[in-house]
Write a structure and sequence with these properties.
- With 145 residues, this protein is α/β, with parallel strands linked by helices.
- It has one domain: STAS domain (Transcription Regulator spoIIAA, 2-Layer Sandwich).
- It has five helices and six strands; from the N terminus they run E-E-E-H-E-H-E-H-H-E-H.
- A six-stranded mixed β-sheet has the order 1-2-3-4-5-6.
- It is globular and about 45 Å long.
């Protein structure tokens, strides 16, 4: 696991040494579109997915506080469509442990699959997420053969 980005809002790791085409990230804090550091964290995966051929993001929201309506609209209207256009096929989600964070995650992913085609299953922990990522990559590889 190689750290490729870190600030107060995210830690992102390329899992290529263990599982190819998977980016793992911890998302944390309270995101605001006017906060340059939050935007750096949110924008980084868009190009990284495209440049490195990332197919799956394993996303841990354990430390997420709140996602505002404004940020949620930006995610729905820009982030999710862009990351899918750049090659992401699935975002495997580890939910927040705080109730307000859980509600934010639920709100954030409410219509993502329908609007973008991104597969967004929820898992309980990192290990379960890695196992699912391996299964998905194998299934997609078989479909292409």
């Amino acid at each position: 696991m190689t750290k490729v980005f870190e600030n107060e809002y995210a830690e992102l790791y390329d899992l290529n040494d263990e599982i190819p085409s998977v980016l793992f990230g911890y998302w944390k804090g309270f995101w605001e579109l006017t906060d340059p550091e939050a935007m750096k964290a949110l924008l980084f995966p868009l190009e990284y997915v495209k440049e490195k051929g990332i197919k799956i993001m394993l996303t841990d929201y354990t430390y997420l506080d709140v996602v505002s309506e404004e940020v949620n609209q930006w995610l729905s209207g820009y982030w999710f469509p862009t990351v899918v256009k750049n090659g992401l096929k699935s975002e495997i989600v580890i939910d927040s442990t705080a109730l307000i964070g859980q509600l934010s995650v639920e709100f954030m992913y409410e219509n993502v699959s329908e609007s973008t085609g991104l597969f967004t299953p929820m898992v309980q922990n990192f290990e379960e997420g890695k196992e699912l990522a391996i299964k998905l990559l194998k299934a997609w590889e078989q479909e292409n053969n």
